[in-house]
Amino acid sequence: MTQIFVRLACATLLFVASAAFCEDRLFEPDAPLRMRIGGGNLVTHLHGAPSAQIYAALRGVGAPLGRMDSYGWRTLDRKPTPSDFDAAMREAYERGITPVILLEYEGSYQFLDPPQPIGSYRDWFIAGVAYARRFQPGGDWAKANHIEGWGATIFTAINEPDVQATIPREDYRRALEGLADGVHSVNRELKVVPGGFATCNSHGDATLRGYGPVIAPLLEDGRLDGVDLHTYYNFRWFPLTRGRQFSAQSCFDRVKKAMGLSRDINFYATEYNISKSEGWARPETAAKLFLTAFWDEMAVVGADGRRPATVFAMPWNLGDTGAIEGPSYAMAAGAAPWRPEARAIVLRNLIALAGAMHFVSIDREKGLLTLEGPNGRLLVWHDLEGWTDAPGSAWTVPLPEWAAAAELWGWDGLRRRVPVAGAEHRFAALQPGETYMVFIPRPKR
Hints:
Blueprint: H1 2-20, H2 22-25, E1 38-43, H3 52-61, E2 65-70, H4 86-94, E3 98-103, H5 121-135, H6 140-144, E4 154-157, H7 161-164, H8 169-186, E5 191-194, H9 199-203, H10 211-214, H11 216-220, E6 226-228, E7 231-233, H12 248-259, E8 266-269, E9 272-274, H13 283-298, E10 310-313, E11 332-334, E12 339-340, H14 342-354, E13 358-363, E14 368-373, E15 376-383, E16 395-398, E17 405-410, E18 413-419, E19 424-427, E20 434-441
Parallel strand pairs: 1-2, 2-3, 3-4, 4-5, 6-8, 7-9, 8-10
Antiparallel strand pairs: 11-12, 13-14, 14-15, 15-20, 16-19, 17-18, 17-20
């Protein structure tokens, strides 16, 4: 396992630097994979010691993005209060994490005493202007703190509206339209995305209980950059072991079809994980399937079936030990200091192995992914029924002309390293039902 510790050391050295220029390259096809990985939540009222666990988790796995959300981002009469984010932004900057801002609103707020209605187009336009102007790179907050080249470039709002489904659909559309127009009036390059949707995953509803089609015009004209789909793979309800119909890609395709979109949009995921429960309750089983889930999320493609569409994917919940939401999605084995649970170890190893790479090809029919980076080439194969047209116990890997060695990796790390020569190498004695990776290191000069 010496190789992975070396790569982890390199990932640590690059961590703060990658966060610093993450926003500059996140939307480029050759952006390193590491830039597309993060976690949350960085809640604005929990800055300081209470947030140490999630920051420790992000640093522990080597991920530079964090979803930063606020439940107090405006007053009761819907006036934005950007200062709510100030301390959290300072902490994120000091810890080398690039924030993805989430302005939260739950459908239950309208039933409070006094009620807190979602607000008008103008309310959200004003909020978009205020938050973009203050927190974009080079914005008012950055200038006041003498910070260059760092800030938020992705603004999201209203997490999982389709769960409670109490917000009137047209009011929801007008809110996102106002936010997008406000943000873009400050800077057209900033991205606006609706907060994550849950019900394609949880209920097989590609309309997202009607919230998807109502925002289709905003996606069609580019005011919204893409959709954020939450994917909780579950032994009973969303079993990826039964094929790609239970995948992030499948939901993404079906949601776009239900919206009737002609424009190619991007894919976001602020929450995904393998549920460690029922038939997947053993930590080793959940960790093995997490490897498949990771590549499912990272390799979502656009309408042509080839263009990588994933902007970022964040597993949930890197910081939790199970004390908050139970053991199913908890990815921490300990707190203060943070210790990784088996799925978090898989994520840490993946970032160390492939963090500097980018996709060069995605073949959904064969279940094959190819990535390139400065240190070599990585091939990924989903050897699962329904994920490849030819599952089996052997994998013949094409070799670049410069190949001298090849490493077979699984969910548990490096399994074998062999010398190679010629045009291909056959890895035999594989156990179908999991995802494999072959890393071909580029010879040092």
